[in-house]
Specification:
Length: 294
């Protein structure tokens, strides 16, 4: 065996050893799916940072490679750039970030991609799975939600994707918060205060330079407003990406935080999916170990 082959074998062996160690460490395992390499960050970057700070294991997965999301770049070069940005974003808060090689803007809920999702959930041995709802404005976002829904039961069926061992316990599935009203508005079943990690979340989003400072401002027509100075740019990003806590989310915070809810300024909320495991409030408190003790 040559040196390259031996090196690859050792790397795979080390990865397997690490995964086995992680599985038995008593920590939660969370996987979140977004359509594009910056999607999970805006919806769950705060909770991901909180989980990571407590030693839990979080993985973000972009179902497309983002190769269409730019006004002047595209194709393989853009996909490579966005993959590197995602990895850096994950590194900044201590989570894994993977980008699948499906074309941006062309995602469909096919069997092939469903199998990719099933395998990723199984490989991560997830306790909890997060995704967008299936009524988003962007077809890639919608179909990511559908793909995760379609995988929700199949992850426990051994004869589906038999090359990857089926889970013996179905994860709990949650949707990210959104503002879409039809056919049903988002329902915040769980809300998590992220005041303590807002700066970490903004730093994570800052890693996606091609999106935060180029593509999205170009789409919004305010590219000329993006500061050149890195510190000023970070401050500008924080102001532009902040979201006020809605009344519905405030009520959810009241359920989980009690009297502390009134002082919370920033939060991320999640809707419990009908598929997967149906947790009790007691189990939700274990899945979200951030709430005050009862």
């Amino acid at each position: 065996m040559n040196r390259i082959g031996l090196g690859l074998l050792l790397a795979v062996g080390a990865a397997v050893t690490l995964l086995l160690a992680q599985e038995g460490d008593g920590k939660l395992r969370i996987i979140a799916f977004g359509a594009h390499p910056d999607d999970c960050d805006s919806r769950a970057g705060g909770v991901a940072a909180k989980y990571a700070a407590l030693g839990h294991h979080v993985k973000f997965v972009s179902v497309t490679n983002g190769d269409a999301g730019h006004q002047s770049e595209g194709g393989g070069a853009l996909a490579t750039r966005r993959r590197l940005e995602a990895r850096e974003a994950g590194r900044r808060i201590g989570i894994e970030y993977e980008t699948l090689d499906n074309h941006d803007g062309e995602l469909v809920p096919s069997l092939d991609v469903r199998r990719q999702i099933i395998r990723k959930i199984r490989e991560w041995k997830a306790d909890m799975v997060m995704s967008p709802r299936s009524n988003d404005y962007h077809p890639d976002h919608r179909y990511t939600g559908i793909l995760v829904q379609d995988a929700a039961y199949m992850v426990v069926v051994p004869n589906i994707c038999p090359d990857t061992p089926a889970l013996r316990k179905n994860p709990v599935f949650f949707y990210f918060q959104d503002g879409f009203q039809r056919p049903n508005p988002f329902r915040p079943d769980v809300a998590v205060a992220i005041d303590d990690v807002v700066e970490k979340k903004i730093r994570m989003q800052d890693a996606h330079t091609s999106q935060m400072y180029e593509w999205l401002p170009w789409v919004a027509g305010n590219l000329d407003k993006v500061p050149k100075d890195p510190a000023a740019r970070l401050e500008w990003l924080g102001k532009g990406r902040s979201r006020p806590v809605s009344e519905a989310v405030r009520q959810a915070l009241g359920k989980w935080y009690g009297a502390q809810a009134g002082s919370i300024r920033a939060a991320e909320a999640f809707e419990l999916c009908e598929y997967g495991r149906r947790p009790s409030d007691e189990e939700i408190r274990k899945l979200f170990p951030f709430f005050p003790k009862q």
